[in-house]
Target: Large ribosomal subunit protein bL25
Amino acid sequence: MEAIKAQVRERESGNYVRELRRKGWVPAVVYGTDVSNLAIQIEGRALDAVLRTQATNKPFRLVVDGQEHDVMVYELQRHPLAGNILHADFKAINMNEKIHTTVPVLMTGDPELGVATLVRHSVEISCLPGNIPESFTVNVDGLNIGDVVLVQDLQIPAGVDVGLDSMEVLISILPVKAASEESLDAAEDAAETAEAAGSTEESKKV
Model:
């Protein structure tokens, strides 16, 4: 398991946090059953290095002033332009107790005909932290229009329980036109949602 050294964060003021970031530190918080909102600071480069080598849904170890905590990433806040991590929330876990989390569904290959479309981008699972797969990868080579990939088609590791019906559709092979229309519908729905949100904000101002 990857390990990162961290330090207890002394102060919470905005000026202090900004100064930490300027020096390359990431302010963070650890919480859990045995940890009560522990404010810490981590070297940004060390955190980035771990997140480049493993998925954010995998556990790692924080060593805070010599005390070890097994944690998982709960939330990361990144700069909208630079992409660097501004703040991190970690959840302390027990490596011997099952947890609930999500695993992304990824596709490789190309269908014989049609376009492969993800119906579900992630799958809910339950397992020990050390058994969490980074992803469920599905090869769609050779599939044709009308074919689907179901939950039961996944290669699920031993000790991992999936919280979906085995017949749930994860990937569907659609005609090119249908896939384009589906994308257009999704874009239109997003636009309508944004417009509705904007109207709500305007009404609040009035």
Remarks:
- Residues 176-205 form the longest helix (30 residues).
